[in-house]
């Protein structure tokens, strides 16, 4: 294919896209013409957002235990986002509140979330193996103290 034919194809592409909802950007005139299309983005398209929300919304008659979503009653207010300690304490407090609210809601629905007192679970490691690990840790502590 010759250069004039490829330029015609690029011109046709430009002409075809001229009336559409796109913005054309091209390279400089000396080099090969690169055509980049960039769609215009509509910000805060409320009708489309509402339609999408309706499509993914859950029915209102689902019990809370099916979704288990909790919204905090208080917003996180951190004055300095670079202060790791205060930021983590705020996240911790919010998670703690969510856990308390979740336990209350499960109890209201009659759900059980605690292990029964007579529950017996097999241990992955034997008692002999755990005794060896404990002895090794005690020996390491003794050598550190010496």
Automatic annotation (TrEMBL):
* Highest taxon in the source lineage: Eukaryota
Tell me the compartments it is located in: Nucleus, Nucleolus
Q: Which residues form a coiled coil?
A: none
Cellular component GO terms, alphabetical:
nuclear periphery; nucleolus; preribosome, large subunit precursor
Chief location bin: nucleus
Q: What InterPro entries does the record tag this protein with? A: Ebp2
Acidic residues bias: where?
15-32
Q: What keywords is this UniProt entry annotated with?
A: Coiled coil, Nucleus, Ribosome biogenesis
Disordered: where is this region?
A: 1-32
Q: NAD: is it a keyword of this entry?
A: no
Q: Which GO terms describe its biological process?
A: ribosomal large subunit biogenesis; rRNA processing
Family label: Belongs to the EBP2 family.
Q: Which PANTHER family match?
A: RRNA PROCESSING PROTEIN EBNA1-BINDING PROTEIN-RELATED, RRNA-PROCESSING PROTEIN EBP2-RELATED
What name does the UniProt record give this protein? rRNA-processing protein and EBNA1-binding protein ebp2
